[in-house]
Structure formats: structure tokens, C-alpha cells
């Protein structure tokens, strides 16, 4: 589906490739105790955002990390180079809202020039993307995910507590016009809010190279998660099949978070991210570097370790690799069930990075 997708594996998990030396200390940093090789790093550039989405942060907002404790551009590039030189092939920039970071173009340029990096992606709310995307593409951005949970402007304003629906639509079209294919659109589905729009979103794939990605509502600190708001994958799929009976499952990559489908004569594709009802932990190849320099090996796990502090205390690359490798080795086989996740202490999504 995506030219930048890592090479296919023959097993159900992201395992060590056969041509990679098993005793290679560099690659071993990314290998956990279950044989999963982590080649995908998500980097949060900022905790700040120009929206206030209800499922991302509490109504009263969150305390943000003071600017001096946020990773600098040089620190981001140094840590990213450490990961890429150890085998990471894909980096995704997240936030907060990554496009509001003033040096994002320079960060993209430095990251895209890292030897061994194949994909440089971004997940954005699209508010400022349309005017920034041409430059970002010049700086090496290869893939775009845009978050949009409703096609109704009034609902958008209710959910995000801000205006801007038209700007997001303009950003989707700008990405298409600049040749991004597919343009991924992330939609968190919530019962009673936007579950009646599922098929309207699917219609967007008819004539445009859009990948609509329906995401099950996930619990994070302060977002008032409730199982009654969760629309499970099986129900979403049933609704789409009834309206689009030619829906067919595609062959997914072993490390995909999404279950991917195509509809006859549609230019785009439809995907479902089933974190709550059918987890995909066995094939997980993702790691997270938060804006404050904390390193997280699982989105739903509360464990974090600081890379910023040892970096600023003068740690060399070997010492940083030891810290990273130890954290990766402690990664669990899978996250807890959705009800346990809802009761587990974890930071708001705006702190973790989307």
C-alpha cells in the first residue's frame, strides 16, 4: 500500500532479519525479549497544540513541560541519529501539534538526511499544514497523516473547542495536490458523536487517494474514556460492508497497526485501528521519544525513562544505547486489556505524542 513500508517479514511479528548479525550490539538495542525488532520511532516535537480535542486533553487543559526541559533541535537530531544508526527506518513527527514548532523545517531537513532513514512522516491536525507543507516536502517529509474526526464544521468546533474545519480540509487537498499518496486521515470514532459519519468518511476514498483510518476510542488520562463511547471494529466494519459490499481485505504488513481494505472502483483505501478490541502487540515495532526527552516503549504502558537528563549530563552514545536497550528489553509482550488500561496511570495524549 505504501512505498515507504518496511520490507515484508515471513512471520506474524517484527523479527530480526536473517541477514542481520544476531550478536550485533547496535541492532540489539532495538530488539526486545520477545524477538521484536523496533524499526519505527515516533518523536513528539512539542506538547503544545492549537486545538483542545476532548479525547486528547481534559477540559481544564494540562500543565505543559517548561520550554527549557523540552528537547532542542540538536538533541532531537542526535538521539534520532542514534536510533537510525541502530536500525530505525521510519520516524514519525507528532505532538501536541508538530507544525507549530518554529524549527520544524530544519528538523525535517536534518532527519531526512540521516543515513538509513527510509520514511519521514508527520501526524498533524492540519490547521496550519496547507501553507507549510510545500516547504516540509522540500525538507524531506515523505508521508502525511491528518487527524479529522468529523465532516460537520459545528461538530468539529464542539470536539476541538476551536474553529478550523475548513483549514483541515484544505490541508488534505493540499497534500493530495503535492503528490502524497495515500494521504492518511485519522478518525477517532466515538458513539453518539461521529459514528453516524463512518460511511461519509468512506465516501472520501471514492475519487481521491485518501486512506481513511478509523481508530477505536482509547483511554488516556483526563479524556473521560467510557466503554459506552467505544465503537468496536466489528461494528464499524459491519456498517461499512452494508453500504459498500465490495469491501475487500488487503494483505497487511506484519507490523501494521491497521487492518486495511479496498472498495471496488475507489481510489483510496479504508483501514481500522483496533487497539482496544483486537490488539496488535505481537507485531509492534514502535518506540516513542516524548517532547520532554522521556523514552516510552509502549503507548499504553506507564513506564518511561529519561534520555534528556543523561544526554545533558554528558552521556556518550554507548551509554545512551545502554539506557535505550535496557528499556526495550523490559517491554512487555502486550498491553493490558482495555478496562485495565482505563484504570492505569498514564499521561494525557498531548504529553505522550499522537
Automatic annotation (TrEMBL):
<dbReference type="InterPro" id="IPR000385">
    <property type="entry name" value="MoaA_NifB_PqqE_Fe-S-bd_CS"/>
</dbReference>
<dbReference type="GO" id="GO:0046872">
    <property type="term" value="F:metal ion binding"/>
</dbReference>
<dbReference type="GO" id="GO:0005525">
    <property type="term" value="F:GTP binding"/>
</dbReference>
<dbReference type="InterPro" id="IPR007197">
    <property type="entry name" value="rSAM"/>
</dbReference>
<keyword id="KW-0456">Lyase</keyword>
<dbReference type="Pfam" id="PF06463">
    <property type="entry name" value="Mob_synth_C"/>
</dbReference>
<feature type="domain" description="Radical SAM core">
    <location>
        <begin position="33"/>
        <end position="254"/>
    </location>
</feature>
<comment type="function">
    <text>Isoform MOCS1A and isoform MOCS1B probably form a complex that catalyzes the conversion of 5'-GTP to cyclic pyranopterin monophosphate (cPMP). MOCS1A catalyzes the cyclization of GTP to (8S)-3',8-cyclo-7,8-dihydroguanosine 5'-triphosphate and MOCS1B catalyzes the subsequent conversion of (8S)-3',8-cyclo-7,8-dihydroguanosine 5'-triphosphate to cPMP.</text>
</comment>
<dbReference type="InterPro" id="IPR010505">
    <property type="entry name" value="MoaA_twitch"/>
</dbReference>
<dbReference type="GO" id="GO:0051539">
    <property type="term" value="F:4 iron, 4 sulfur cluster binding"/>
</dbReference>
<keyword id="KW-0501">Molybdenum cofactor biosynthesis</keyword>
<comment type="subunit">
    <text>Isoform MOCS1A and isoform MOCS1B probably form a heterooligomer.</text>
</comment>
<keyword id="KW-0408">Iron</keyword>
<protein>
    <recommendedName>
        <fullName>Molybdenum cofactor biosynthesis protein 1</fullName>
        <ecNumber>4.1.99.22</ecNumber>
        <ecNumber>4.6.1.17</ecNumber>
    </recommendedName>
</protein>
<dbReference type="Pfam" id="PF04055">
    <property type="entry name" value="Radical_SAM"/>
</dbReference>
<dbReference type="GO" id="GO:0006777">
    <property type="term" value="P:Mo-molybdopterin cofactor biosynthetic process"/>
</dbReference>
<dbReference type="GO" id="GO:0061799">
    <property type="term" value="F:cyclic pyranopterin monophosphate synthase activity"/>
</dbReference>
<dbReference type="InterPro" id="IPR040064">
    <property type="entry name" value="MoaA-like"/>
</dbReference>
<dbReference type="InterPro" id="IPR013483">
    <property type="entry name" value="MoaA"/>
</dbReference>
<keyword id="KW-0547">Nucleotide-binding</keyword>
<keyword id="KW-0004">4Fe-4S</keyword>
<keyword id="KW-0411">Iron-sulfur</keyword>
<dbReference type="GO" id="GO:0061798">
    <property type="term" value="F:GTP 3',8'-cyclase activity"/>
</dbReference>
<comment type="pathway">
    <text>Cofactor biosynthesis; molybdopterin biosynthesis.</text>
</comment>
<dbReference type="InterPro" id="IPR013785">
    <property type="entry name" value="Aldolase_TIM"/>
</dbReference>
<dbReference type="InterPro" id="IPR050105">
    <property type="entry name" value="MoCo_biosynth_MoaA/MoaC"/>
</dbReference>
<dbReference type="InterPro" id="IPR006638">
    <property type="entry name" value="Elp3/MiaA/NifB-like_rSAM"/>
</dbReference>
<comment type="similarity">
    <text>In the C-terminal section; belongs to the MoaC family.</text>
</comment>
<keyword id="KW-0479">Metal-binding</keyword>
<dbReference type="InterPro" id="IPR058240">
    <property type="entry name" value="rSAM_sf"/>
</dbReference>
<keyword id="KW-0342">GTP-binding</keyword>
<keyword id="KW-0949">S-adenosyl-L-methionine</keyword>
<comment type="similarity">
    <text>In the N-terminal section; belongs to the radical SAM superfamily. MoaA family.</text>
</comment>
Amino acid at each position: 500500500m505504501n512505498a515507504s513500508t518496511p520490507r515484508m517479514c515471513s512471520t506474524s511479528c517484527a523479527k530480526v532479519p536473517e541477514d542481520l548479525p544476531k550478536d550485533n550490539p547496535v541492532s540489539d538495542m532495538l530488539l526486545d525479549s520477545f524477538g521484536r525488532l523496533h524499526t519505527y520511532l515516533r518523536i513528539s516535537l512539542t506538547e503544545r497544540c492549537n486545538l483542545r480535542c476532548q479525547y486528547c486533553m481534559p477540559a481544564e487543559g494540562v500543565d505543559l513541560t517548561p520550554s527549557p526541559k523540552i528537547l532542542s533541535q540538536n538533541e532531537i537530531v542526535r538521539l534520532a541519529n542514534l536510533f537510525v544508526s541502530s536500525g530505525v527506518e521510519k520516524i514519525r513527527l507528532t505532538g501536541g501539534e508538530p507544525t507549530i514548532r518554529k524549527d520544524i523545517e530544519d528538523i525535517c531537513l536534518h532527519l531526512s538526511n540521516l543515513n538509513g532513514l527510509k520514511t519521514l512522516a508527520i501526524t498533524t491536525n492540519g490547521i496550519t499544514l496547507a501553507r507549510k507543507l510545500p516547504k516540509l516536502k522540500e525538507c524531506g517529509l515523505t508521508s502525511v497523516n491528518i487527524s479529522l474526526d468529523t465532516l460537520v464544521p459545528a461538530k468539529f468546533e464542539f470536539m476541538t473547542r476551536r474553529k478550523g474545519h475548513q483549514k483541515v480540509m484544505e490541508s488534505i487537498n493540499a497534500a493530495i495536490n503535492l503528490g502524497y499518496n495515500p494521504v492518511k486521515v485519522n478518525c477517532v470514532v466515538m458513539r453518539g458523536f461521529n459514528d453516524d459519519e463512518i460511511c461519509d468518511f468512506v465516501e472520501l476514498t471514492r475519487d481521491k487517494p485518501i486512506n481513511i483510518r478509523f481508530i477505536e476510542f482509547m483511554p488516556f488520562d483526563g479524556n473521560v474514556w467510557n466503554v459506552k463511547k467505544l465503537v468496536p471494529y466489528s461494528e464499524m466494519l459491519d456498517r461499512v460492508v452494508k453500504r459498500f459490499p465490495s469491501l475487500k481485505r488487503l494483505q497487511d504488513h506484519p507490523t501494521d497497526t491497521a487492518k486495511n481494505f479496498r472498495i471496488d472502483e475507489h481510489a483510496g483505501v479504508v483501514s481500522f485501528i483496533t487497539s482496544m478490541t483486537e490488539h496488535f502487540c505481537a507485531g509492534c515495532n514502535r518506540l516513542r521519544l516524548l517532547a520532554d526527552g522521556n523514552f516510552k516503549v509502549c503507548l499504553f504502558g506507564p513506564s518511561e525513562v529519561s534520555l534528556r537528563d543523561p544526554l545533558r549530563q554528558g552521556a556518550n552514545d554507548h551509554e545512551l544505547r545502554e539506557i535505550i536497550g535496557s528499556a526495550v528489553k523490559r517491554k512487555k509482550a502486550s498491553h493490558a486489556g482495555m478496562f485495565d488500561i482505563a484504570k492505569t496511570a498514564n499521561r494525557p495524549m498531548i504529553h505522550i505524542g499522537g
